[in-house]
């Protein structure tokens, strides 16, 4: 439908999409102030069942990962490995995780970042559980796209029905938060919610959008700066006259002033209905590497509490991932690799090297593209010099905190980037992420988010954008509304 439109009509849609997305909060606060996050179309269109299946996969990997991570930190694979993984964390994270990893029963939201391989199989590259954001950004992109298309055709009255058919990540998040609150004894019918963030949070636009959606559902929801939270005489969180029942954390523990009441809540969250608790160990790629290794090693799986069904799911959907360390390893079929470092040096195109605990794409090196300007700059920033692939492998293997992962092929696709001037054609890589939760029975998320980038390292912080994700059912209604 979009390809058949006259270019002038496509430009009208693009201008409307960019304007509306920015108004709704698709913005990023950087050092130079607020800037719009690029939004592109056509949308990714999938049957609703496809996104539901992907969310089930994300949840199915989160559960054994959480169990395995707790056992690893308890020393199930040796004190040295536990110390190495804890050593990757900042001191405040390390202290809280060491003390509390056994008590994490509920996560209101987890985001699994995936690529779809050439065979159509979903492959989970990593999990995000500290700030698994972009629920709002994805909703904004879908809503702004639908509104822009309908407005350009004079059919704005059909907006609500189409968006209802598409579902909402914000509503899913709200349901998860309330389910976690109920599971921990919360009794309010419509609990009030503080969306807790750092001052000048880069994603404040998204948080404001989420708070507005929660208020539409009858909840008193407000964005709150972490440093402004105090404790009432009875030990409840307060900000002025606002005493939230639920705290939705959107701030790293490392960004919280240790002298504040909120820092004390992170250390002891009982009674505060704080989601998610401090849980960076669930994001460490090193933990995912241990789960990947256990999926082809029955004895190891038994030690880590990974069932046969869990192992099969991991083998099917997690690319082969190992901690990057000199010595032997096992391949994706369980066969022995005599020396991992030598193996990686010889097969550059097949691998991706990543920092175990990092974000923003800064510590990611794609073997197939290694040597381009961007990878040389990342290597120089990290190691102080430009390195050959062999030298990079050696450098990463010589220090703790790196993993290697099987490269999942991803093809660029044609898109139009929306701007006030119209639709600009580009070729970009598009990923897909799915949401899940843990211990929030009856409130399984059902949506996702798609990001686009000119680089195969797809990340908003490194210049990427958002692509609307529409269910096939919503897309059919949109086309029908336009008489197509």
How would you summarize this macromolecular structure in one to three sentences?
The chain has helices at 7-24, 48-73, 79-87, 91-100, 135-152, 159-166, 169-183, 204-216, 261-267, 285-294, 298-304, 308-317, 340-346, 373-383, 389-397, 472-481; strands at residues 27-30, 33-36, 40-41, 44-46, 107-116, 122-128, 193-197, 221-225, 230-231, 237-238, 246-250, 274-275, 321-323, 329-330, 336-337, 351-355, 364-366, 402-406, 413-419, 422-430, 432-438, 448-453, 465-467, 469-471.
Characterise this structure:
There is one protein chain. The mean pLDDT is 93. The chain folds into two domains: 7-77 and 85-282 and 411-481, no CATH class; 320-407, no CATH class. Strands 3, 5, 6, 19, 20, 21, 22 and 23 form an eight-stranded antiparallel sheet that branches. It has 16 helices and 24 strands. Strand 14 and strand 15 (336-337) form a beta hairpin. By secondary structure, it is α+β, with helices and mostly antiparallel strands. Helix 2 crosses helix 12 and helix 13 packs antiparallel against helix 15 (389-397).
Characteristics:
globular; single chain; four-stranded parallel β-sheet; 484 residues; alpha+beta; 22% strand
Oligomer: single chain
Radius of gyration: 22 Å
Q: Could you tell me how far the N terminus lies from the C terminus, measured between alpha carbons in angstroms?
A: 8 Å
Largest sheet: 8 strands, antiparallel
Average pLDDT figure: 93
Shape: globular
Number of helices: 16
- The share of residues in helices is 25-40%
Unreliable stretches covering 5 or more consecutive residues = none
What structural class do you assign from the helix and strand content? alpha+beta
- Count structural domains: 2
Strand content: 15-25%
Number of strands: 24
């Amino acid at each position: 439908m979009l390809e058949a439109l006259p270019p002038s009509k496509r430009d009208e849609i693009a201008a409307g999409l960019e304007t509306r997305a920015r108004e709704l909060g698709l913005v990023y606060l950087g050092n130079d102030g607020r800037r719009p996050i690029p939004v592109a179309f056509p949308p990714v269109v999938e049957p609703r069942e496809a996104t539901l299946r992907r969310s089930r996969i994300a949840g199915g990997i989160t559960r054994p990962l959480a169990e395995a991570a707790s056992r690893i930190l308890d020393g199930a694979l040796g004190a040295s490995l536990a110390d190495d993984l804890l050593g990757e964390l900042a001191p405040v994270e390390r202290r809280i995780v060491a003390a509390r990893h056994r008590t994490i029963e509920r996560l209101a939201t987890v985001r699994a970042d995936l690529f779809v391989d050439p065979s159509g199989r979903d492959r989970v590259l990593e999990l995000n559980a500290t700030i698994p954001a972009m629920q709002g950004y994805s909703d904004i992109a879908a809503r702004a796209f639908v509104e822009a298309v309908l407005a350009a055709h004079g059919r704005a009255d059909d907006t609500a029905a189409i968006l209802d058919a598409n579902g909402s990540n914000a509503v899913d998040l709200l349901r998860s938060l309330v389910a976690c609150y109920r599971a921990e004894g919360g009794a309010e019918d419509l609990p009030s919610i503080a969306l807790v963030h750092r001052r000048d949070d880069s994603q404040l636009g998204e948080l404001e959008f989420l708070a507005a959606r929660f208020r539409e559902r009858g909840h008193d929801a407000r964005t709150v700066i972490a440093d402004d939270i105090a404790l009432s005489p009875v030990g409840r969180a307060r900000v002025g006259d606002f005493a939230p029942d639920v705290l939705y954390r959107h701030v790293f523990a490392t960004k919280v002033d240790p002298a504040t009441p909120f820092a004390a809540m992170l250390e002891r969250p009982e009674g505060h209905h704080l989601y998610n608790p401090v849980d960076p160990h669930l994001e460490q790629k090193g933990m995912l590497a241990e789960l990947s290794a256990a999926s082809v090693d029955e004895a190891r799986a038994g030690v880590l509490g990974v069932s046969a069904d869990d192992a099969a799911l991991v083998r099917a959907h997690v690319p082969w991932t190992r901690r990057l360390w000199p010595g032997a390893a096992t391949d994706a079929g369980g066969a022995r690799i005599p020396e991992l470092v030598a193996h990686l040096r010889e097969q550059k195109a097949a691998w991706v090297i990543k920092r175990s605990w990092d974000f923003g794409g800064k510590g990611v090196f794609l073997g197939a593209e290694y040597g381009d300007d961007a990878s040389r700059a990342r290597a120089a920033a990290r190691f102080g010099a430009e390195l050959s692939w062999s030298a990079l492998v050696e450098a990463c293997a010589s220090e703790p905190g790196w993993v290697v992962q099987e490269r999942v092929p991803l093809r660029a696709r044609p898109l139009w980037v929306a701007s006030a001037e119209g639709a600009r054609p580009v070729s970009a890589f598009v990923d897909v992420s799915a949401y899940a939760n843990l211990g929030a029975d009856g409130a399984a998320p059902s949506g996702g988010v798609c990001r686009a980038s000119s680089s195969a390292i797809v990340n908003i912080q490194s210049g990427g954008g958002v692509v609307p994700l529409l269910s096939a059912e919503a897309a059919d209604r949109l086309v029908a509304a336009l008489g197509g």
